[in-house]
Amino acid sequence: MVALLVAAMLTFATSAMAANDLILGENINWIQLLKSTDGGVNFSSITDGGGSLNATLNGKQLDYLYCADIETVVYAPGDYNNTSVSNNATIHSNTAPLTVYNAGKVAYLLEKYGVNGVGDQTKQAALQAAIWTEIYSNPSGSNRYKLDINTDTHTGGYASNSTIATLYTSYLADATTHTGDVSKLLWLSPAISQDPRAFQGLVTSAPAPEPSTIVLLVTGMLGMAVFGKRRMIKTA
Asked: What is the residue-wise DSSP string for 171-216?
């Protein structure tokens, strides 16, 4: 188990340093939010697009994909063929590394509700708003974001705003006393070759290894075990 984990980590480390191809689909959920630029004293209404986005990473379909850095733009659809990947909650915002605030709570929310929200725009809108609220609640920061529960401007398949608000509130309450493992997620910094722009940081679940990959790893481990046993016998 430890050897398999180490092998998987080495494989991930290699892909993280290399250029990754992230392809975003057209499905964007538009969410009505309230934004504060004075630490949560005054709020104004804004509408922003968020997850879950339909996407592939290096040709593999992602279960879900949510936006992390709301203040940087990412365009969908789009092919981001020079995307960097981390497993330590670090993304790039305007070319500067940024460690996601409350990343453990974001990880918990995605681990518990990410897959559950697939295909359900209501759950996706509530989860995306909760993620932004958690990330932008740093006491040292001035900007805050929260779901606008008073104005229903949602169209295109959304349920009532009150339903989104109920889910949003329950997600935040659940995350209050829980934290998840940030290393189980992929924190993406979309980028395009020969393009200096930094795009909005994103977060998704780490794809499970394909059965063939697992077989190869296990076979290699067994081979190492047999080789080690032969050496022991020969030495004895």
From this structure: HHHHHTT----GGGEEEEE---TT-------EEEEPPPPPHHHHHH
Q: Fill in the amino acid letter for 58.
A: N
Give the model confidence (pLDDT) of 112-143 as tens digits.
999 999 999 999 999 999 999 999 999 999 99
Measured in whole angstroms, the distance separating CA 214 from the mean position of its chain's CA atoms is 24
DSSP state of 67: E
The span from the CA of 172 to the CA of 126, in Å, is 10
Which amino acid is residue 132, in one-letter code? W
Give 1-8 contacts, CB < 8 A, sequence gap 24+: 3/221, 3/224, 4/214, 4/217, 4/218, 4/221, 7/217, 7/220, 7/221, 8/209, 8/217
Contact 113, 53 (CB under 8 A): no
Cβ pair 131, 106 in contact under 8 A: yes
CA 183 to CA 103: how far, in whole Å?
Answer: 10
Residue pair 145/70 in contact by the 8 Å Cβ criterion: yes
> How do residues 94-115 score in pLDDT, each as one tens digit?
767 889 999 999 999 999 999 9
Q: Which residues contact 212 (CB under 8 A, 6 or more apart)?
A: none
Report the predicted TM-score, pTM, of the whole model to 2 decimal places: 0.79
As a whole number of angstroms, the distance between CA 43 and CA 137 comes to: 14
Question: Coil, strand or helix: which one is 96?
Answer: strand
Helical (H) or strand (E) element with 113: helix 103-113
